[in-house]
Automatic annotation (TrEMBL):
UniProt-listed PANTHER family: CALAXIN, CALCIUM BINDING PROTEINS
Protein name as catalogued: EFCB1 protein
Keyword Cytoplasm: no
MF terms (GO), sorted A to Z: calcium ion binding
Keyword hit for Kinase: no
Residue span(s) of domain EF-hand: 66-101, 102-137, 147-182
Protein keywords: Calcium, Metal-binding, Repeat
Family annotation (InterPro entries): EF-hand-dom_pair (IPR011992), EF_Hand_1_Ca_BS (IPR018247), EF_hand_dom (IPR002048), Recoverin (IPR028846)
Organism of derivation: Pheucticus melanocephalus
Length: 194
């Protein structure tokens, strides 16, 4: 639905405040892109947003993100109200973290991606699910899952500071602050630098 100029200006101002990492002109560009994506989407959301399919295609085309599990989790972190539809606010504020977030924001984002069941912990099973897609299996390997299990054990040894067999956000945060490369320890969920 076409928005009045005044309505659009209010939206741009509001999103420039809430998505602190973008300038006003960047927010305007992201809203235009959002409108283009909504037009491409099926009209089931009556112009209010776009669905998982459009979102996944966009992340794939823009950032080369291909992992289905990760793409679904990214969609879920963007879709804060859990409607199955990405609104303009969710779009701009989500991209602010994805593209320009502080280390703190990115840690919260990555943790949410890896915490598959949303219980506040990354369990061994969740690590296994995330990591099993990231290992290249050599034909000579006797049991492909064994390598993944070994990786999970290594990750726990390195990151599980309270030794409870799972990662809390506190564990994850401490590990990432000690070694920033651990931010995406369980699979790439941020766009690469370019």
């Amino acid at each position: 639905a076409a928005m009045s100029r005044k309505g659009r200006k209010l939206l741009v101002d509001s999103l420039t405040r809430s998505a602190k990492h973008f300038t006003k002109s960047e927010v305007e560009c992201l809203i235009k892109l959002f409108d283009t994506l909504v037009a491409k989407a099926s009209s089931q959301f009556a112009g209010a947003g776009f669905d998982r399919t459009v979102f996944r295609d966009t992340l794939y085309n823009a950032f080369g993100m291909t992992d289905d599990v990760v793409l679904d989790r990214v969609f879920s972190t963007f879709d804060r109200d859990n409607t199955g539809c990405i609104t303009v606010e969710e779009w701009v504020e989500g991209l602010a973290v994805l593209l320009r977030g502080t280390l703190e924001e990115k840690m919260k984002y990555c943790f949410a991606i890896y915490d598959l069941n949303g219980d506040g912990y990354i369990s061994k099973e969740e690590m296994f699910q995330m990591l099993k897609h990231s290992l290249l299996i050599q034909p000579a390997d006797e049991e492909p899952d064994e390598g993944v299990k070994d990786l999970v054990e290594i990750a726990l040894k390195k990151m599980d500071y309270d030794h409870d067999g799972k990662l809390s956000f506190t564990d994850f945060e401490k590990a990432v602050r000690d070694e920033n490369l651990l931010l995406e320890a369980f699979g790439p969920c941020l766009p690469d630098i370019k």
